[in-house]
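User: C-alpha cells for this one?
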Amino acid sequence: MKICRTFLFLLFAVLLTSSISAQTITSFDLTIFKPLPEVDLVAFYESNSLSGAPRVFQISILPAGIDVVLEGEISWTNIGETSSKRLSNFETMPFKSTTFNNTDLGTQIRINEARTNNDNNGIRDLVQKYGKPIGRFDINLTLKNSQGVTLKQVSDYVEFINPTQSFSIEIPQSGEEFQLGNILVQWSNVPGADHYEVKINELKSHRKSFEEALNSGNPYYNNIGIQNSITSIRLSEQDFNRPIETGKEYVVQVVAVIKLATGDRKLSSEIINFRTAGFYDANKIAIKNELMTLTSLPGFSTFASIFSDQNLVIDQLVDENGNPISQDELRTLLNYFIINPDVVIQTQFIYNNNQ
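Assistant:
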C-alpha cells in the first residue's frame, strides 16, 4: 500500500509539472523603439556586440524565471524592392525569461556562437553603399523552451526612408542665368525612388519666399511622372502649361516619390531660383521706367531727359550709405514720394565718377 501511495504521488507530481510547463510563458512581446534615429548599422547585425549599440528594441517574456531559448532573424528590404535579404540569424544560450533590451544580448544573455550567422558580405555592401540604414529592417523572433519546443513567435519592423545624405538640385545653381532654349534641370539620384516630380513657377517678387512663389497660382511646369532612371530634363523638350519667357526669374523644386508598404513618402530637394537670358537687361529697363514716374513730381521734370537716355545704364541701386536697394524697395520708395510729394526737400542727380 505504501508503494502505491508513492507511485500515485509521483504520478501526480509528473502531471502537475507537465501542466505547469505547458502554461509557462503567457506573454512574449517585441517592441522596436520608433521612430528610430539613423543609428549605426551595427545595432542591427552584430548580435554579440549589441551591448555597445544604441537601444533599438525591447523583448518581454513573462512570467519571469522560466528557462527559455530565443532565436532571432534580421532581414533587410531595400527601398522600392519586394524581396528581402537575411543579414543575421542568432540563437541564445538558455536563460531565465525576463524583460530586456538588445543591449543585454551578448552580456546578460549569452549568444550561442555555433548557431549564429551573419551575412558579412551583405552587411558590408549595405554599409559601403549607403553608410547608414535605409529601407526596411524586419526582426523575427522565436521563443523556445529548454527542450527546444517552440512556444511563441513575434515580429516587428522599422523603416528608414531618407536614403541619401542630401537630395539636391545640381543644375541650375542658385541665381544662374540660361538661354531660353538651353535650360537644364539636373538632380542627384535617390536609390529606391519610384519616380520624380518637377515643379517650376515664376518668382515675380522677392517679397515672397521661394516656397510661396513655387506654390502660387498655376505653375508653369508640373511634371509628376518622371521615371526613376531619369535625373535630368531639358526644359525646351518639355510641355509647359505656359511658356517660359526671357528676362524673368523662376523657381524649381524636384521631389522623389518613394513607395513603401505604409504609403508613398516624398523627399523634396531645396528650391532653387534661376533666370532666363535678358533678365538683367529687362531689370535695368524696368528700373529706368520706375524712375520715370518721378518726373511728374515738382522738381523732377529736369530728370526726364536723363532717364529717357538710351545710353543710360543703371547697374545698381544703393542708399545714402552705399547699401544695395532691391527693385521692390525702390518701388515702395517711389510710391511713397508720389503719394507724399511734400516730403521731398531737394532733388539732385550725381553722375558716377567712372562715367
